[in-house]
Structure formats: C-alpha cells, structure tokens
Amino acid sequence: MRKFLTLAVISLFFMFNVTTSFAEEASQAVKELAQSTLAGYGSDPVIVNAVKKQNSMGKTLDEIKATDKKWQDTAGIDSFMKSTMDSECGRHLSSLLESTNYLAEIFVMDNQGANVAMTGKTSDYWQGDEAKFQKSFADGNGAVFVDEVKFDDSSQAYLVQISVPVMDAGKAIGAITFGVDVEAVK
Description:
This protein is α+β, with helices and mostly antiparallel strands. The protein has helices at 2-21, 28-40, 45-56, 61-73, 79-86, 88-98, 131-137, and strands at residues 103-109, 115-118, 145-146, 150-152, 157-168, 171-181.
C-alpha cells in the first residue's frame, strides 16, 4: 500500500510539472500587438453597438447560466449559436479574422461575460467566471489581459488569448477575446 501511495504521489507531481511547463509568457511582440492593434478594436463602432444592444436586454445571470448549460449540452452549432456568428457584429469579426494571418478566433462578450458575437463556437456561452472576461472587463474599468501561451489541439498551433475591454464613454461595457497564433506574430 505504501509503495502504491508513493507511486501515486510521484505520478501526480510529474503530471503537474509536465502540464504547467507547457504554458509560457507571450513575447514582447504579442504584448505590443495586444496594447495597440487589438486594444483599438474595443472602440470599434460595430462592436460597441452590438454590446450596447445586448446589455440593454437586461438578461439576468440566471437566464445567462441557463443558456450556458444549453450551449454546453448542444453538440454542433444550433440556430442561436449561428445567429451570433451571422449577426452584423459576427460578420464583422469574421472579416477581421480573415484580414490577418495571426488571428485564430474572436468573440465578444457583454457586461456579464455572455457571448454577443463570435467567429466560431466557443466551448461555453458564459465567460463571466473566467479570467479572460474578469481581467479585461475589470469591474467596468477595462484592462488589456494577455493570458499564457498554450498549445491548441484543434488548430495545432501555439495560441494565446488576448482580451481587451469594449469601451463606451470611458467605461468598459463588455470585452473581446482574440485567439492569437504566437508564431505568426513577428
């Protein structure tokens, strides 16, 4: 029993060190991209208007969480998900994505972290409990958040999520997350 417990502890230690060693800090070029070009999209009129429109709907957190559960339980893309991609803002995001070689995904969130528009299906609808939203929305103050670089199995590339606030009249009203292929940023 003691030998088994020792092996289990060693295995957990090894697994922890292996998984944490794959995450790394983004390069200076990626950080500069975040602070300049990507942060600028936070005042893009198409994005600001879409976020303002969704914020004005006054969804409760319970409604958002119910949608989040349905979202996660749905295989593929249903009509509601498709509508976030086909909206004016979703099409605008797709054109931004296609205009660069370094963007892998873009999605916009409202003032509670619920998806407003996206270029592809996200794993969940509500981002409000995640650092990407919390650190970029920053309780309405807004801040640029550059996460750690990680290998993305679906795209087979090293990506970093960069989140910037959507700003209106000097106040954060939502956030945008960009999936950036770090090897394409020079």
